[in-house]
Design a protein that fits this description.
By secondary structure, the chain is an alpha/beta fold. The chain is 43% helix and 19% strand. Helix 6 runs antiparallel to helix 9 and helix 7 (157-169) packs antiparallel against helix 8 (175-183).
């Protein structure tokens, strides 16, 4: 695995390259993770794919050129994200690719499919919050009052910790989700990243009709992966979406939300090899 940077006028993007296969897969990790999250795929699929694992905005080594609060509040348009991916692909001489996204990363992977469908061969999303983000994500991301509350919480570690515990008590999130979020509020920098990540998802909301039309039109192979015990994104969240669209495969693993493990890899490899 090697580490690299790609820069444009908008961002200094840090990413990892692993695997050596002729096909390319762009990897979009979950909240609080990093571009190495899908490294486990290399052992089984590295001969078939070259993987490009990005540190997403406000995570690890990736930095916006202007990371002020005012800029963050503007968010990123899908077209802007697509322009960055296009420039990255030109830089790495990639003409076609697959995408894989987990949880928060499923929003990024889906936006890429919506904007660049002719380049996408496979669409793989796990714990797919992009098809049903849930009340918490919508409240803090899209709701003006909710987003303002989250902005204020950035200033107080204790207040942020208390509200996360409240959401666990109210069953908006499970213990796994609470533990993930608690890890991300220890410093003002981490709380800013939490705020910014929720805020950026505001403009990456899935356009269901467009996505379905493009998946069918371009014959993009689609795989949706759920954890049977993932209380944040249970398999039933796909019921409405799957009533409109028949994916190539729906996989339900005996996992909770933290599902990117060897079981995940082995099952996905069966579908891709």
């Amino acid at each position: 695995m090697t580490e690299h940077y790609f820069e444009d006028q908008f961002v200094k993007l840090h990413y990892y390259k692993f695997g050596s296969g002729p096909r390319h897969m762009l990897c979009f990790h979950g909240f609080g993770m990093h571009g190495k999250q899908f490294k486990l795929l290399e052992a089984s699929l590295g001969h078939q794919y070259t993987f490009w694992g990005f540190d997403l905005f406000f995570h690890k080594e990736t930095r916006l050129k202007d990371q002020t609060l005012a800029t963050v509040k503007k968010g990123v348009q899908k077209a802007e994200l697509a322009a960055m991916i296009l420039a990255f692909c030109k830089h790495e001489q990639i003409s076609a690719f697959s995408v894989i996204g987990y949880s928060m990363g499923s929003h990024y992977a889906t936006a890429v499919v919506e904007e660049l469908p002719a380049m996408v061969r496979e669409y793989i999303i796990a714990a797919p919050s992009s098809i049903n983000p849930g009340m918490l994500t919508r409240f803090f991301g899209k709701n003006k009052a909710g987003n303002k509350i989250l902005e204020k919480l950035m200033l107080s570690e204790k207040a942020m910790s208390r509200i996360i515990n409240f959401f666990k008590w109210s069953r908006f999130i499970d213990a796994t989700g609470r533990d993930i979020l608690q890890k991300e509020v220890g410093t003002s920098e981490l709380r800013f990243a939490l705020y910014a990540s929720f805020t950026y998802l505001r403009l990456l909301e899935t356009n269901e009709d467009k996505l379905i039309r493009l998946l069918n039109l371009y014959k993009i192979k689609s795989i949706f992966i759920f954890g049977r015990y993932d209380k944040m994104y249970l398999p039933r969240i796909g019921k409405k979406f799957f009533s409109k669209f028949k994916p190539d495969e729906v996989i339900i693993l005996d996992e909770n939300h933290e599902m990117i493990n060897l079981n995940f890899v082995n099952r996905l490899a069966q579908s891709l090899l």
